[in-house]
Write a structure and sequence with these properties.
This protein is of the alpha+beta class. Helices cover 29% and strands 20% of the residues. The chain folds into two domains: 33-181, Reverse transcriptase/Diguanylate cyclase domain (Alpha-Beta Plaits, 2-Layer Sandwich); 187-291, GMP Synthetase, Chain A, domain 3. The protein has helices at residues 33-47, 71-76, 84-93, 119-133, 165-172, 199-203, 235-241, 263-273, 284-291, and strands at 53-63, 78-79, 101-105, 109-115, 149-157, 175-181, 243-249, 252-257, 276-280. Strands 1, 2, 3, 4, 5 and 6 form a six-stranded antiparallel beta sheet that branches. α3 packs across α4. It is elongated and about 65 Å long.
């Protein structure tokens, strides 16, 4: 069964292991049957060319944690996030050529074909794609990711004129890089608070009581600021406004703020960063910890 747009759909993509081609004990990149069929037919035209060509295989899955299933069942319940793959491919397209071809199966996987690219060049391309994709943040994907989301990459190259379509696909099905998007906060806190805090909330030191009237999402902050976010807002401004950048997705910046409903501060941050500001509320103690670490 292939993915559907339902968040509970199972992942039954193929795991292309074939010991006759080349023994391998590593992780494999799954590939949906529909994409496999499409890719196989498309590679037939490339295999007749004398110039080298390469391909990348990309697979995205999101792990769900049902409360009334066994651990084994939880492990196999992987599904895509509707719209996530296309957001992922936006970052991919930024670092590839216009004539590179993308074959995609909605919400699941994609294959990227690179004419006249050898194996050495493909390694560099994969690194550029990985760096671009790593700019994504679970909290700023639309809609925000609620569970760990795994992105796997595999790569294959036609090294000789005798290379077969099967060999290329099976080479690309071996995992070369992995990227995991992990939400910073539990999925129960992803929505904006609109209720009065319960007594059980107030007794938990790790949960700050939100303002009853606030519709700004609440976020638990990491103990350290990501190195790639430190340059977005200077430490001096972060101290002055009591804020910290905690997530980034393209031109959207997630900022934890002591006063997330202060529109003038939000407009100021947007003007100096050139980005759309997504404010979140946070624990004062956790914000103080971040701001105590000068960057």
């Amino acid at each position: 069964m292939l993915y559907s747009e339902q968040s509970t759909s199972l992942c039954d993509c193929l795991l292309l292991t074939q010991e006759e081609v080349e023994p391998d004990t590593g992780q494999h990149v799954p590939i949906p049957q529909q994409l496999y069929t499409q890719l196989y037919a498309r590679l037939q035209s490339y295999i007749t060319e004398t110039t080298p060509f390469s391909m990348l295989l990309l697979h995205a899955s999101q792990r769900a944690y049902p409360s009334l299933t066994s651990y084994k069942e939880q492990e196999r319940r992987q599904h895509s996030m509707p719209g996530f793959l296309e957001q992922l491919l936006v970052n991919v397209r930024r670092v590839i050529r216009t004539d590179d071809e993308i074959l995609a199966q909605q919400d699941i996987a994609a294959a990227i074909l690179f004419p006249a690219v050898d194996q050495h060049s493909l390694v560099s391309i994969l690194e550029r794609i990985y760096q671009s994709v790593s700019l994504l943040q679970a909290e700023t994907v639309v809609p925000p990711l609620r569970n760990d989301t795994l992105v796997q990459f595999g790569m294959g190259t036609a090294t000789t004129p005798e290379t077969t379509v099967e060999q290329i696909i099976h080479a690309a099905s071996r995992e070369a890089r992995t990227f995991v998007l992990r939400p910073v906060l539990p999925h129960t806190l992803l929505h904006a608070y609109t209720r009065q805090p319960l007594p059980s909330d107030l007794e938990n030191d790790n949960i700050a009581a939100p303002r009853p009237s606030s519709r700004v999402p609440f976020m638990h902050l990491p103990p350290k600021l990501s190195a790639r976010l430190r340059h977005v807002i200077s430490y001096r401004i972060a101290q002055e406004l009591r804020c910290a950048p905690v997530g980034r997705n393209n031109h959207c910046l997630t900022v934890a703020m002591a006063t997330p409903d202060n529109s003038s501060q939000i407009h100021y941050l947007a003007s100096i960063t050139g980005m759309t500001i997504f404010p979140v509320s946070c624990s004062e103690d956790e914000l103080d910890l971040l701001l105590s670490q000068e960057w």
